Amino acid sequence: MSKEIDTLTSKSWPRNLVETVKCRKRDIVIRITDWTRDKDEPAFDVECYVAGVYDWNESQTFCTRSAKQTRKQAKTAAIAFAQKQIAKFVK
Q1: Which of helix, strand or coil describes residue 49?
Q2: Which pLDDT band holds residue 38 (cuts at 50, 70, 90)?
Q3: Which residues does 26 contact at the CB level (< 8 Å), separation at least 6?
Q4: How far is CA 60 from CA 2, 4, 33, 63, 81, in A?
Q5: Model confidence band, residue 30 (pLDDT cutoffs 50, 70, 90)
Q6: If you average pLDDT over residues 58-79, what whole number do you get?
Q7: Do the Cβ atoms of 10 and 16 come closer than 8 Å?
Q8: Which residues are CB-contacts of 58 (< 8 A; sequence separation ≥ 6)?
Q9: Are 17 and 6 in contact, with CB atoms under 8 Å apart?
Q10: 65/42 Cα distance (integer angstroms)
């Protein structure tokens, strides 16, 4: 996938490379980042942005090492949390 991303430009169609995502006041953006290759604290981060504002209280990190979970368990928990947040904010 990284080779594909390297070839994307701002003019690529149907996928466009963007610097940032502009959020509107009704937007909920959930960003999930896979940090499981990080040697210090492998984890999945689930970040929630409500109306363009990052909300630490609505976000969560799902660690593997410190939580004594496998990568698969952390991934499953991150997905479940993201689904819960979507249900909470999309009314």
Answers
A1: strand
A2: very high
A3: 51
A4: 26, 29, 11, 10, 8
A5: very high
A6: 97
A7: yes
A8: 48, 50, 85
A9: no
A10: 6
Rounded Cα distance between 45 and 55, Å, is 13
Tell me whether residue 13 is in a domain.
no
Residue 49 neighbours by CB under 8 Å, 6+ apart: 23, 27, 28, 29, 30, 31, 55
Q: What is the pLDDT of residue 2?
A: 56
Backbone region of residue 9 per phi and psi (left: phi > 0; alpha: psi in -120 to 50; beta: other values): beta
pTM, full prediction: 0.82
Range of the domain at 60: 23-89
Residue 14 belongs to some domain of the structure: no
Number of domains in the chain: 1
More confident position, 5 or 61: 61
